């Protein structure tokens, strides 16, 4: 590699003036968080673009604060080490157990990995941070593609849910559940005057996320009849 590029591979805090190195490292953290967040947003996961940008940015700020406050007399990794512990609680909060199935593990791991990239960027190693963010993006995208190949495409059926439309609560419950499971198709509601309302929902029996959503729909008390097609 040409010598002119060599300094930019190492610690930016040793290459640039303090104020410029802080700006460069902070902006790099924002970009890296956005790269990972875009993939999560496309996959329609709870921790998406904004969340991962803030996590990466916050980790970078803590890493820079650790360097500034430690100076040359103390351990520069002390504050950054606390970020690792703290982000573990945030990642654990994204993991839930629902109906005996643990979900959100990838989201929790993504939060943890994004914080690690932020620490690397805040420490001044922007080339490494960019490389790691691209590697995480590629890994998640490849894993999602492989998962689709292994499990196959969605095989959708129609589910017709009959309910009493007079109070409006059941319709709101159905809509709220489908909004929570944002990978599902939007429902179609038919509410003829003087008759029972019907929600037409397309669902897939192949994938676990769709089956979880179906279980939530079937648990609504206001639904009087269920028809499959």
> Can you give the helix content as a percent range?
55-70%
Radius of gyration: 24 Å
- The largest sheet has its strands arranged as 4-5-3-6
Helix tally equals: 9
**Weakly predicted, low-confidence segments:** 1-5
Strand tally: 6
Structural class: alpha+beta
What is the 3D shape?
Answer: elongated
Mean pLDDT: 78
Please indicate the count of domains.
Answer: 2
Q: Classify the oligomer.
A: single chain
Strand count, sense and barrel status of the largest sheet are: 4 strands, antiparallel
Cα-to-Cα separation, first versus last residue:
62 Å
Query: Which band does the percent of strand residues land in?
Result: 5-15%
**SSE order:** HHHHHEEHHEHEEHE
Concise account of the structure shown:
The chain has 9 helices and 6 strands; from the N terminus they run H-H-H-H-H-E-E-H-H-E-H-E-E-H-E.
């Amino acid at each position: 590699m040409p010598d002119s590029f060599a300094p930019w591979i190492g610690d930016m805090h040793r290459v640039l003036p303090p104020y410029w190195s802080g700006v460069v490292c902070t902006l790099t953290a924002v970009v890296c968080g956005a790269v990972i967040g875009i993939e999560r947003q496309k996959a329609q996961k709870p921790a998406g673009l904004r969340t991962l940008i803030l996590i990466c940015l916050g980790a970078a700020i803590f890493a820079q604060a650790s360097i500034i406050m430690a100076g040359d007399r103390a351990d520069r990794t002390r504050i950054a080490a606390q970020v690792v512990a703290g982000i573990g609680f945030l990642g654990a909060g994204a993991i839930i157990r629902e109906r005996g199935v643990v979900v959100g593990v990838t989201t929790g791991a993504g939060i943890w990995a994004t914080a690690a990239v932020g620490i690397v960027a805040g420490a001044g190693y922007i080339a490494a941070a960019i490389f790691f963010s691209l590697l995480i993006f590629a890994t998640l995208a490849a894993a999602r593609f492989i998962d689709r190949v292994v499990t196959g495409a969605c095989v959708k059926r129609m589910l017709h849910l009959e309910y009493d439309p007079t109070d409006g609560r059941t319709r709101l419950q159905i809509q709220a559940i489908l909004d929570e499971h944002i990978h599902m198709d939007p429902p179609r509601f038919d509410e003829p005057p003087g008759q029972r309302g019907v929600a037409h929902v397309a669902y897939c029996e192949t994938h676990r996320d769709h089956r979880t959503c179906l279980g939530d729909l079937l648990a609504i008390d206001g639904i009087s009849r269920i028809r499959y097609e």
